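Teaching soon. Got one?

===
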Amino acid sequence: MFPFTYTRPTSTPAALAAGASGGRYIAGGTTLVDLMRETVERPDSVVDIAGLPLGGVTATRGGGLRIGALVSMTDAARHRLVRTAYPVISQALELSASPQLRNMASIGGNILQRTRCTYFRDISAACNKREPGSGCAAREGWNRTHAILGTSQACVATHPSDLAVALTALDATVHLIGSAGTRQVAFGDFLLQPGATPHRENALRPGELITAVEIPAHPRPLSSGYLKVRDRQSYEFALTSAAVALHIDGGVIRTAKVAAGGVGTVPWRLRAVERQLVGRRPTPQLWARAAGHAADGARPLAHNRFKLGLLERTVERQLRVVGGTR
């Protein structure tokens, strides 16, 4: 680990001032500290924001939900409002990491965590995300766990957050604050596909902070859930995952929200699947037909072609569970 200065501001304006000067924000530290220890990240200044007033889970008008950026993963998953209104969020959080890490990690930090690509974390390997222009070792290397959707010649790394998949499906909004004031960004626009600039991972401006994520009100009743498929039962990242939310009224699917994880360079919204569902009656045949579109547009690599079928089966299973016709 390289030397750095450490500050712990007691107010949001003080934190923004420190961030504007080039400081890296840290809360739970479950991602940044690891990367600093591995010398993947070498910030000159670390700004501890854990004491800022950016917590709390509150209901918004019409049945939405606002979760503060510094709420821990554990507290968010356990919160009555979250568990009752949006179980897909609770399930995504509880299927993440270990209990000890969930106790430490914040909602904002979870969204901003960086890829678990082994080449990104190996400073001897070529990685455009870590060192722009150096190449992508994963494309010709061992790429079993890498992305099949949203990839580019520059990067094929997956985004690791389970929570982000649920927030993508639910059309969440990210609330930000910076030197120019506050703003909001749709979650689907917040995490960036790599394209030719994989080192630009999100829409944050220099010095900006996430203050909260907000889930808008959805039609009721709303059934939702999260399914994660991985190599072992716990403490493992997804090979594929599916976040599903369905509003079924009068025996007809009125609204369908479906997103996938473990397969995209960002959490991947499955619009083609959604289009197959809306306006139709739930049946096992419908789930299978809709899930057949889950991998539309995929570009598998040498070792991850199995994700094509695995993604379709994961989505079909979760549609059956959430839709209630197994």
